[in-house]
Structures are given as structure tokens and as C-alpha cells.
């Protein structure tokens, strides 16, 4: 853990071929599955988090849902969006920040927000490369979508992971929980 910075935690689903969304950010391939009423892993995960950070692409997808799905405060990292782009009903729940990953994690740490849920493929990649992710919970969905947005991109160096737990779930999902071993 980097001293003076909040730590990031990832909780995502990916197709078996490693995509988290289609090229247009669509999640239709994931939404076709029913909710598993016996799986409360996401709720348990979010109870432990102090805030959520997402990229603008993820935000634009989620803001189009019928209702805002998160209870925790959300920070949207964007170089193009401003607070004026956030709908009035979300102004108290969503804050737009034009900061680099380390700057944002330092800001959150200084505001006593230590455990941060990081969401969005490109954003996760940038936080991993900066050593700002502590754990990844990845649910593999048994579908091949062929192309789209990858969760993991090119890295400057290998990043070792330690498996904390693994479980099979309804619909053939496999959920793996890893701790990153950062230098």
C-alpha cells in the first residue's frame, strides 16, 4: 500500500475472452443473465468501500440506466466532463474530477476515504500501472464476445497476483478474488 494514498479495489465481470464491455460500452451480453438471488458478493464488497471512482465512459453508460445503482459517493474522472454535465438529481451523489490517478487517490486519502472501488476498463488499467490497486475480484462470464474493451491492457512489467478465493456461481460464472503483489 502506498503511504498517503487511498487504495483501489476492483470488482468487475469479464467475458471469458477478457472483455468488460463492447466497443460502444454496451453490457448487453452481461445483462442477459438473471440476477442470482443467492449471490450477495457485490453488496458485501460495496459495504467495505468508502467511495467509487469511474471513468467517463463507464459513467456515460451507467447514467443512462433507469436509476443510479450506487449508494456510495461517486467520483468521475474526466478531462472533458464537468460538474455541470451531471444531472441535477445526481449532483449530491456524483463529483467530476479532472485529476490524474495518483492525485485523485491522494485527494481521497486526505478526505478520509481510504478504500476506493475503481470501475471502468481503461481506468482500472491506469490505476494498476500506477500501483494503486490492492485487490481484484473478477467474475468470468461463460461467453465469448470476440471484441470490445479489455479489462487488462499492455503493462510495462509483470504484476504478480495471489489468489485469495475462488468460487463457482450460478450460470457457470467463476469468481476469483486476487491480491496484487506490488513492489
TrEMBL record:
<dbReference type="Pfam" id="PF01872">
    <property type="entry name" value="RibD_C"/>
</dbReference>
<feature type="domain" description="Bacterial bifunctional deaminase-reductase C-terminal">
    <location>
        <begin position="10"/>
        <end position="169"/>
    </location>
</feature>
<dbReference type="InterPro" id="IPR024072">
    <property type="entry name" value="DHFR-like_dom_sf"/>
</dbReference>
<dbReference type="InterPro" id="IPR002734">
    <property type="entry name" value="RibDG_C"/>
</dbReference>
<protein>
    <submittedName>
        <fullName>Dihydrofolate reductase family protein</fullName>
    </submittedName>
</protein>
<dbReference type="InterPro" id="IPR050765">
    <property type="entry name" value="Riboflavin_Biosynth_HTPR"/>
</dbReference>
